Amino acid sequence: MTATADQIEAALLAPWLSVADGGTGEWTATPYANVGWDNVSLDPATLTDPSAWMEVSTSAGTRRKIGAGDVYAGYPTVLVSAHTPIGTGKQRARQLIDAASALYRERIFTVGPSKLWAYSFSQPMELPKDGWFKLACQISFRIQ
Fold first, then answer.
1. How far is it, in rounded angstroms, from Cα 95 to Cα 105?
2. How confident is the model over 43-61, as pLDDT tens digits?
3. Which residues, in sequence order, are bridge partners of residue 74?
């Protein structure tokens, strides 16, 4: 038996959540209020620190049976995006993407009977979004 999609996504979001909300509280580069989540409205005009905000999205990926026995592999992902005001350069956004990626580098997440580890970090992509400079990085995981 492998971990469920909900367990995988909870484990991948844990570094971003405060301990009070069931996470590990590792993300400190922007205030907790400056993190946008899937299907949760975030109004940049109400940020506690209007110089930057992060966006985090997860996918539990698809699981498929590999080999003999009860062995499954999956490819969950985390997409992190750093948003900084247009016209301020991209150094702050790069620092935030580096800090976000560090939450997953050289780390193994135990999720129920499964193990997750990051194996691929995409080159950050630059995109404008609603008056903000956006730098995004996708982190792909293996699961067994």
1. 15
2. 888 887 788 999 999 988 7
3. 63, 143
The chain-wide mean pLDDT, for the chain, equals 86
Task: Determine the pLDDT at residue 112.
Answer: 84
The Cα-based distances of 87 to 46, 83, 90, 133, 134 in angstroms read 20, 12, 9, 8, 12
Long-range contacts of 123-131 (CB under 8 A, 24+ apart): 124/94, 124/97, 126/90, 128/86, 129/83, 130/44, 131/85, 131/86
Pull the structure tokens for residue 59: 């996918």
For residues 13 and 11, give the distance between their C-alpha atoms in angstroms, rounded to a whole number: 5
Residues 6+ apart with CB under 8 A from 89: none
- Decide: pTM greater than 0.70: yes
Instruction: Evaluate if residue 98 carries a pLDDT over 90.
Output: yes
